[in-house]
Amino acid sequence: MREKPLSAVNGFVGLAIILALIGLGAGVLGTTGNGVGIVLMALGLLLASGIVMVQPNEAKAVVFFGRYLGTIRENGLHLTYPLTTRKRVSLRIRNFTSAKLKVNDVEGNPIEIAAVIAFRVVDSAKALFDVDEYERFVEIQSEAAIRNIASRYPYDLFDQEGISLRSHTEEVAAELKADLQERLAVAGVEVLEARLTHLAYAAEIAGAMLQRQQAKAIVAAREKIVEGAVGMVQMALEKLEREGIIALDEEKKATMVNNLMVAIVAERPAQPVIHTGTIY
């Protein structure tokens, strides 16, 4: 099914024709009692069944005894074929927020994920006749697409190369939108935006993963501290030798490096030891 436009007469012109037929028929019937008056009135009432009103940002699909005739998109009052049924479909932009889904990422870790989908109907015929309850269809297919995307990538990379759900939100959103558009094209729906709104580890592994993240942060901090400490010790030794403050052999240099590294890297402040000489 594909949407096709349906030509319709202006509704106010149609009302004028209907009233004229009914009035003319009533006049003929009242003056002559002729059956022509009844026919004219019946014709006016028949045309009245073709009056349809279309609100802004909505469409009316016209069906005549099971046959799709076309869709009226222009808002206002219209006169279309009589004895037809008109199915309304909204063309407004709508949001759908999925439930929090529990799925496994590509590494098998259970995670909780949810997304918001902005969409609108662009083909009323597909939405009404190609799928059953297109709004429910959007919900089910959206959840299926979210599960599919979640199973393709890891929650986090932990220094690995690639795309993760947590750190590459734009890439994940673009792929989710493309996947959804492919699924919902059959329903005549255009996906305007698809974005994750909730992403977390499942409760049973949240504690362990938090410890892993904390350990990673501690290791990274230690690397920075050691790197800075080595630079400070090297700078101190070079300055002592350059300015001739003190001459150190290799053994004393090693001792000083050890003491400086301990003082800089240690979490607690260094305790000074005062050498007062040897007491006999």
From TrEMBL:
The keyword Transmembrane applies. Residues 49-213 form the Band domain. Signal peptide: none annotated. The chain crosses the membrane at residues 12-30, 36-54. SMART domains: PHB (SM00244). SUPFAM superfamilies: Band 7/SPFH domain. InterPro entries: Band_7 (IPR001107), Band_7/SPFH_dom_sf (IPR036013). It comes from the Bacteria. It holds the Pfam family Band_7. Keywords: Membrane, Transmembrane, Transmembrane helix. This is Membrane protein. It comes from Calditerricola satsumensis.
